[in-house]
Write a structure and sequence with these properties.
The chain has helices at 3-38, 62-77, 90-103, 105-109, 177-192, 217-226, 285-298, 310-317, 325-329, 332-343, 347-350, 389-400, 426-438, 487-498; strands at residues 113-118, 122-127, 137-142, 162-164, 167-169, 201-206, 234-242, 253-260, 262-271, 275-276, 356-364, 370-371, 374-383, 406-413, 443-449, 465-473. The longest helix has 36 residues, at 3-38. The protein has 14 helices and 16 strands.
């Protein structure tokens, strides 16, 4: 074959390859474009017709509004702080107990409501339904808060409940006394109006959620098990309504958490013979440990976007984004790796992409001229739904890669099971319907909680645990204590009323 003939064949082959590549790109673009303008994950996902035989007005008058805000402010002023698993402000917890009884007299006196005190400071309410064959549900919230002081940069004293420009400032306004007071206030109003549910339900108020819930929630669970209770679903705090918080999203999004990331606290330690700074060894305990910590920070856990339920979140929201994000979100089958790389650039979105690693404590040394024998560091990891606790521990060990560094699991648990979120899911649907009744302008989507709640202790009682509070977040709101108005009250009113025909 002549040289010109070979060149012709090579040219012809390259032409075919280039043409095939361009055709493939064109086909992919065509398919992606069609999907972009036709995808609506809510198509066919109709809200179930939860018939209401008795509609109860959600409107409250001026006097009632003033009363509920006054009760809420009083709740914020009580410093129900959990300092540790063994230390709480018990005096404040007793005061809060008295407030509940004063603020909600009908709840505590109604023949429909059975109340039990749990572990001295937590509460379990059982609201009896007229049809005991209907599986009950549980509304969960917590009374305690984390410590706070004015030196943390508060614009108002953290337990003052001071109102500034329409915002109530105080520890617990969001997490989680808004839910506590909203749920009980809703029940109070409903009972006054003669409300009697067909489907019974529980209200659980823990007093130590901020330190794991090992006295409150953990003791409520066996009480329910003792009576053979199986719950239809659990609704706890968690995600919220995000308004102009997600870049490119044209409408507010109400994200209902259908799972939580797992968690692990790992202790790294290095032990060596002590020494003096005048005759230092080649490597010190601090240096060895610092190098291990640096390796963990420089080698993050694998990017797993698209391997967990977070993909469903973006697909549910895809049709509400502006182009070009709408094109990308609608075609995660093609763009998951690209979107994952974009999300990992910011800490707040990187949390959805992988198991996160945070070095939170580093302890070593007692004197400037003494080389310490022991250096310790604590690392907190929040585990992606596509990984297990054991897989994460194995990755930590391989990344550290130094036998001189002792690695111990302090505590941890796997990611929580993913709750159902389809048209057959009673819990998700009733929450979704209630949210849309209260906030008609929002779009509802399943989401993931990157933090943890004490709802995880109830996983033996139900397969469906949801995490949502009707707090309306706008840009900048997360940096302060958000104003709590009637939103939690209205969600609770709508939810309990919507259950009347379960």
């Amino acid at each position: 074959m002549t040289e010109s003939g070979q060149k012709f064949k090579i040219f012809k082959f390259l032409k075919i390859m280039i043409s095939s590549f361009l055709i493939t790109i064109l086909l992919l673009f065509t398919v992606a474009s069609i999907r972009t303008f036709s995808l609506d994950v809510n198509a066919g996902l109709q809200l179930a017709n939860w018939e209401k035989t008795k509609n109860i007005s959600l409107v409250i008058d001026h006097h009632q509004r003033e009363e509920l805000i006054a009760n809420f402010k009083e709740a914020i002023r009580i410093p129900t702080v959990s300092f540790s698993g063994t230390e709480s402000n018990n005096t404040a917890l007793l005061e809060f107990n008295r407030l509940l009884r004063k603020a909600f007299p009908t709840v505590f006196s109604s023949k429909l409501v059975h109340h039990q005190l749990v572990a001295n400071y937590s509460h379990l309410f059982w609201v009896q339904g007229s049809q005991p064959d209907l599986a009950p549900y549980l509304l969960l919230a917590h009374i305690d808060v984390v410590p706070a002081s004015e030196s943390d940069g508060w614009e108002a004293p953290p337990f003052s409940a001071k109102e500034i420009d329409g915002f109530i400032y105080g520890r617990g306004t969001i997490d989680d006394k808004g839910s506590v007071m909203g749920i009980l206030q809703a029940l109070e109003y409903l009972l006054i109006k003669g409300y009697a549910p067909r489907r019974g339900f529980y209200i659980g108020l823990g007093h130590d959620e901020e330190v794991g819930g090992y006295k409150g929630a953990v003791n409520i669970v066996p009480m329910l098990k003792q009576h053979g209770v199986q719950l239809s679903f659990v609704l706890d705090e968690g995600l919220a309504v995000l308004d102009d918080v997600i870049s490119g999203l044209e409408v507010p999004a109400a994200l209902i958490g259908i799972t939580e990331k797992g968690s692990a606290t790992v202790k790294l330690s290095v032990s060596m013979a002590p020494g003096h700074s005048s005759m230092p060894p080649r490597e010190t305990s601090i240096g060895i440990l610092a190098a291990a910590v640096k390796r963990l920070e420089e080698n993050p856990m694998p990017r797993l976007f698209g391997h967990g339920p977070e993909r469903g979140t973006f697909e549910h929201l895809a049709h509400k984004f502006r182009l070009p994000m709408k094109f990308i979100m609608s075609n995660l089958w093609l763009f998951s790796p690209l979107l994952g790389r974009v999300l990992e650039r910011k800490p707040d979105t990187n949390a959805f992409v992988r198991t996160t690693t945070a070095v939170t404590m580093f302890n070593a040394g007692v004197k400037v001229n003494v080389i310490p024998s022991l250096a310790e560091a604590y690392v907190n990891l929040r585990i992606h739904s596509a990984q297990s606790l054991q897989e994460v521990l194995d990755l930590v060990r391989s990344t550290v890669g130094d036998q001189r560094v002792k690695i111990e699991l302090v505590d941890g648990f796997d990611p929580l099971p993913v709750s159902s979120a389809d048209e057959q899911s009673f819990g998700f649907q009733i929450i979704k319907k209630t949210v849309l009744d209260m906030f008609p302008t929002v779009t509802v989507a399943p989401g993931i909680c990157i933090g943890n709640t004490d709802s995880r202790h109830f996983k033996d009682l139900t397969s469906d645990i949801y995490r949502f509070a009707p707090v309306w977040f706008k840009p900048g709101d997360a940096k302060r204590c958000q104003f709590w108005s009637q939103q939690t009250l209205h969600l609770s009113l709508g939810l309990t009323e919507g259950q009347t025909c379960g």
